[in-house]
Amino acid sequence: MCSSRIENPGSKEIKALSIEKYILHAELRGKWMKKIIVFLVLACLLTLVGCSSNTTNPSASGETPVQKKKLKIALTGTRDISYTKELFKLGEKIEKESGGSIKVEIYPDGQLGKDSAVFDAMKLGTIEASMMSPGSLTSYAQRFSALDLPFLFKDEQKAYEVLDGPIGQTLLDDLPKMGIVGLSYWEIGFRHLTNNMREVKSIDDISGLKIRTLPNPVHLNLWSKLGAVPTPMDFSELFTALEQKVIDGQENPAGLIKTSKFNEIQKYLTKTGHVYSPNIFMVSKKFWDSLSEQEREIINKAVDESKGEQRKLNQQEVNEALTYLAENGMVITELSPEEKQKFMDKARSLYSEYTSVLGEELYNKLLEATK
Hints:
The chain has one domain: D-Maltodextrin-Binding Protein, domain 2, CATH 3.40.190. A five-stranded mixed beta sheet has the order 2-1-3-10-4. The protein has a four-stranded mixed beta sheet with strand order 8-5-9-11. Helices cover about 45% and strands about 15% of the residues. It has helices spanning about 10-55, 80-95, 115-125, 155-165, 165-170, 215-225, 240-245, 255-260, 285-290, 295-325, 335-350, 355-360, 360-370, and strands spanning about 70-75, 100-105, 130, 180-190, 190-195, 210-215, 230, 250, 270, 275-285, 330-335.
């Protein structure tokens, strides 16, 4: 029993050596563990960097990845109308000049909603841009009703002069407080009357006709004074309403009458030319503020260049449309100078009613500019 507790004389030295050896091995293991951990951390970081690089799609040459911004343009006009055709060209131009940093998408035919819904979406920034006539804007910015005053412009050149000058800019300056930035005036054109009841050769022929108009006080007032029964309605509902004879007629530029195929359900067209309608190119202020200065310059320049091209295209479209409509069964009527003057006298009696809406200063400048 006692002999079992007697230690070997060299056992202490052996134990000491074993402890030192254990400690040495532990230190070596610790160093290797630290190296392994550092290696693993570096490997993870390299993997993350590689993944993030792949999501931004870097080029093989090592160029800086492009961060794309989407520009959705929504409108109620058809795909075949002049301003929609030019919008597709505009989109290509913006994408090219921006080096792909701005991706443009066009949604015609009311795909993203009526004008009112699109305008509200632009204020929120969920739709980036649109084109609308002044008649669609007056419920938001009353002074745009100035451009809907009947027989205001004698021809397109006078309209361009006013719209591209200080008066046009003054009206655009009303938009930013509503979350919209107005960039340019494109063209819809002079509006003409169509109906399926009778040929209109005089004011008396208008009496009692149920005419679709824009939901705009100036338009409603005008057709009431001319003896019609004005019926406000969204453009997207117009064809069906004419087809089902809910209304007798409508008023729009010749190009839109053709592309909307109104000639299939309307027999008579009278060249009243009562209102010249521009098409205002607008963008969401939220979107505009997100752009760099360079990107804004690219869009401004492209929109301005396209404005000129679209106006030329629209003039060509109007002439071709009138010829097409006549060849395809519509009765095209020119008002005599005497009857045209009667229309003008009757229509201009409502001018003074809008002095307070426009403000006396703008009203007087507008009359002076258009004479």
